[in-house]
Design brief:
Layout: E1 7-14, E2 23-29, E3 35-39, E4 44-45, E5 54-59, H1 62-66, E6 71-75, H2 81-84, H3 87-90, E7 98-100, H4 102-113, E8 123-125, E9 131-134, E10 137-144, E11 151-158, E12 161-165, H5 183-192, E13 196-200, H6 213-225, E14 231-234, H7 240-252, E15 256-260, H8 262-273, E16 283-284, E17 297-301, H9 311-316, E18 330-333, H10 342-354, E19 358-360, H11 375-385, E20 389-393, H12 397-409, E21 414-415, E22 422-427, E23 432-436, E24 441-445, E25 448-451, H13 456-466, E26 468-475, E27 486-490, H14 502-516, H15 519-522, H16 525-544, E28 549-556
Parallel strand pairs: 3-6, 6-7, 7-8, 12-13, 13-20, 14-17, 14-18, 15-16, 15-17, 18-19, 20-21, 26-28
Antiparallel strand pairs: 1-2, 1-22, 2-3, 4-5, 5-24, 9-10, 10-11, 11-12, 22-23, 24-25, 26-27
Length: about 550
């Protein structure tokens, strides 16, 4: 039973209005005494052009940190990086128990052990179809099909109603490895009564129904069988179904499977431990590759997203110490580029083709299917669960807007347009956005976390565009110039548009400026620095058309 003043709240902190960094809070109770649970804690991949020097992004957990003592646990829906990848960096800010099914729990642990200095995390295993009680929340793990084993939706029951948080899911009656999505189970939940459906929006713009993993397995088997030489398959390391399909295809035509890449090795160990690779021959390490006949090997490689340090990129540059390809070999991209990674993936494909290697992608063959639902699958979910409220999540603005329109066409009157940081009251009464809480991104910059507003990132963008001029000037206490100024240019062209030597342009500007200042002004270091800075930027802009960043240092001798 709920008490007077109790409210059921949803606050997305990541993954709503973007792809990746999934993290959300559900709260129950009166405003000043709520208990909370968090669902997922994922990371996102940074675009090099937009965020130079930054590889990873995490959700800003400032709001969650404020309520840390009232957070009862973090519930993980499945083991993809955009749902678990922030745990190592961000969990120490919360230090609450994490709940996950066996495969996901073991994957998180294996990932942690591979990261030097990673914290010991309080992990608690939830059985398949398991339930747990956390304060006012009663949570049921509901198996769903996805592109990784043991993906789950969460039926979150409270005294004010049930929220069905789908996580990532699709319909697939023949998933090769992992769960299927049960119509019977979701119909049962719908009959019980679903207050709100918080649902994946990734593929809402695509008509029809996603093909099955078993169909991909059939096509992969054919492509491996009819290849005269080596076959390389690159896919997401976490896609155990795809890995199993490749192993079965290789076994059927007498080939050995070699796995290359740390992420692949980690997932293989966890999948084997959990029984998902039972009945398959041994998957061999990279060291076996060079001893196998060219027509008797299939290599599973990391790097399907164009990662520069992953196995496939190194092979494409002919830099891998153990794996090499030759003209006539076949590389299958059993994946699709995540938005932002297209250029890096395209560069690898071009390098392979230039080397005479055949490249097969999902543009021409059924070698990949998404783990997310298309419109027919989403219509079935709405039909089964009959929610009173729809909350589109897991998508960019286009996906969320299209999902909102789609949900209304399924007969849902109340559709909440959530974004990261919106605090939504789902019950009691009519659902509404109550306020906006702090949200955003945190960047992994080297070994440190920096706020999205940190000046380092925009300064790097500016340096990448205009370069920098560094000048050191020696002056004595009377304002006399001592020696020649030291000038260094980085990122500027050598010559201007009419052939001017730019370092000479800078030198002339510095000399004119210093000679034009009185001795009194030259005794003011800050005034000298500002005057030289302005003169350099103006002079360079005149011959180049850009104003560089300047660093002027006055040394008093």
């Amino acid at each position: 039973m709920s008490n007077k003043g109790d409210e059921l709240i949803f606050v997305p902190l990541g993954g709503v209005g973007e792809i990746g960094m999934n993290a959300g809070l559900y709260g129950f109770g009166p405003p000043k005494a709520r208990k909370w649970i968090m669902v997922d804690l994922g990371m996102g991949f940074a675009s090099e052009e937009h965020l130079p020097g930054v590889d990873l992004m995490y959700p800003d957990l400032s709001f969650a940190e404020e309520h840390r003592k009232d957070i009862l646990g973090i519930l993980i829906t499945h083991g993809h990086e955009d749902h678990i990848g922030a745990i190592g960096e961000m969990w120490p800010k919360l230090k609450v128990p994490i709940y996950a099914t066996r495969f996901t729990k073991n994957l998180i642990e294996a990932r942690r052990l591979g990261e030097p200095g990673a914290p010991k995390v309080d992990m608690r295993e939830v059985p398949a179809d398991g339930r747990l009680e956390l304060g006012p929340f009663s949570i049921e793990y509901v198996p769903v099909a996805h592109s990784i084993p043991e993906a789950n939706a969460l039926a979150i029951r409270t005294p004010l109603g049930m929220v069905l948080h789908t996580g990532d899911w699709k319909l697939d009656d023949t998933p090769v490895a992992g769960n299927s999505t049960s119509e019977e189970t979701f119909t049962r939940l719908g009959e019980e009564g679903v207050l709100a459906l918080v649902c994946d929006s990734t593929n809402v713009t695509r008509e029809g129904r996603s093909p099955s993993e078993s169909e991909v397995a059939e096509h992969l088997a054919e492509l491996i069988r009819n290849s005269p030489h080596r076959v390389v398959v690159t896919t997401f390391a976490s896609n155990v179904a795809r890995m199993r399909a490749v192993c079965l295809a290789a076994q059927a035509c007498g080939r050995d499977v070699v796995a290359v890449g740390r992420a692949m090795d980690r997932v293989i160990d966890v999948a084997r431990e959990c029984g998902y690779l039972d009945g398959l021959p041994e998957i061999r390490g990279a060291e076996a590759y060079g001893y196998l006949p060219r027509e008797k090997v299939v290599a599973l490689l990391t790097g399907s997203q164009g990662e520069a340090r992953a196995a496939l990129a190194r092979v494409s540059r002919d830099e891998h110490p153990e794996i090499a390809l030759a003209a006539g070999d076949r590389v299958i991209f059993s994946s699709r580029a995540i938005p932002g990674n297209e250029r890096a993936v395209g560069a690898i494909i071009n390098d392979l083709i230039e080397a005479g290697i055949e490249v097969i992608t999902d543009r021409t063959e059924l070698v990949h299917v998404s783990g997310h639902p298309r419109r027919d699958e989403m219509a079935a979910m709405y039909r089964w669960t009959k929610p009173r409220i729809a909350v589109p999540v897991h998508g960019e603005a286009l996906h969320l807007a299209e999902h909102a329109t789609f949900a209304r066409k399924q007969g849902v009157d109340k559709v909440m347009k959530a974004r990261n940081g919106t605090l939504i009251r789902l019950a009691p009464g009519e659902p509404e956005i109550v306020t906006k809480v702090k949200s955003g991104r945190v960047y992994k910059d080297g070994n440190v976390l920096v706020d999205a507003n940190d000046r380092a990132i925009p300064e790097r963008r500016k340096l990448a565009f205009t370069g920098i001029v560094s000048v050191a000037v020696a002056l004595d206490r009377n304002g006399e110039i001592k020696g020649e100024p030291s000038i260094d240019l980085m990122g500027l062209p050598s010559y201007g548009r009419k052939g001017e030597v730019i370092i000479d342009v800078v030198g002339d500007a510095v000399e004119r400026t210093l000679n034009g200042l009185s001795r009194v002004k030259r005794r003011d270091s800050e005034a000298v620095e500002n005057a030289v800075d302005r003169a350099i930027r103006s002079a360079v802009n005149e011959v180049w058309g850009k104003k560089p960043a300047c660093h002027v240092m006055v040394v008093e001798v």
